[in-house]
Amino acid sequence: MDVSGLNRAAPVLFESEVDSTNLRIRDMALRGADEGTILFAAAQTAGRGRMGRSFLSPPGGLYASMLLYASEDPERDLTLTPGVAVAVSRAIGRVCGVESGIKWPNDLILQNKKLCGILVESFMVVARRELVIGIGVNVNTERFPPSLVTAISLYQATGERYALEALARALTEELDSFIAAWRKNSACVLTDYRRLCLNLGRTVRLSDGRIGTAVDVDPDFRLLVRFPNGGEEAVSYGEVSVRGLYGYV
Ligand code: BTN
User: Fold this and answer.
1) Separation in Å, CA 49 to CA 27, 28, 114, 204, 236
2) Whose CA is nearest to atom 16 of ligand 1?
3) What is the CA radius of gyration of the chain?
4) Which residues have any ligand 1 atom within 6 Å of their CB?
5) Residue 146's CB: how many other CB atoms inside 10 A?
6) End-to-end CA distance of the chain, in Å?
7) Considering only CA atoms, which of 152, 119, 155, 114 is closest in space to residue 135?
8) pTM score of the predicted model
9) What is the pLDDT of residues 204-231, one digit of tens each?
């Protein structure tokens, strides 16, 4: 994959297979890698998912991680993950002509199934907190194991195969422009996020068992849920997860 020629200071690297791009980027950070360094891989043997889960990463997908220095405010950094979802949705739209929606807070969805997962992890490099933004997109995958009935690839959704290189370039450009805007305004993509968020107006079940209707997303990207008794609560994604009542979203 040739991802050279992108106009940016930090390197864009490519490996055919790694254990986890998030782990590789963390190792590079510990050896002094520049902020903005991106690693793409065409397969992972130990892909990391949210909540300690693994992320199946067969050939056919595109797996990426980007290094970022954390800001002074960990609360602000929480807005990074949903914002990245918008940036990735834009990149996929540019290359594949499909608009993927977002299941709050940050899964990209096509045809009611999961197209892409995002995992931001933080770690210390000497006295500085650094972040790795990890993105896994199901691109040309033909089929998933029966245990992953909620997964879908771009190939399955559109019947077309896509050049990983084109997607890697678009992802790099969209991430770079999103990060530049996000540094000035942490809610820079809020309007697009609200438009893409598939939960809005729908019934959600919170991980604590309560059921309500998702009515809005606030500037901190918390989901505003209205309960049958009329009460409302803004829920943070560190605290609860949501599921629709009928299916994945
Ligand atoms: C999730 O939905 O649970 C998050 C999945 C994140 C997967 C990506 S693939 C690239 C990067 N490297 C990893 O090991 N995980 C992330």
Assistant:
1) 18, 20, 13, 22, 19
2) 134
3) 18
4) 20-22, 44, 47-50, 53, 55, 57, 63-65, 107, 117-119, 134-136
5) 6
6) 34
7) 119
8) 0.95
9) 988 888 999 999 999 999 999 999 999 9
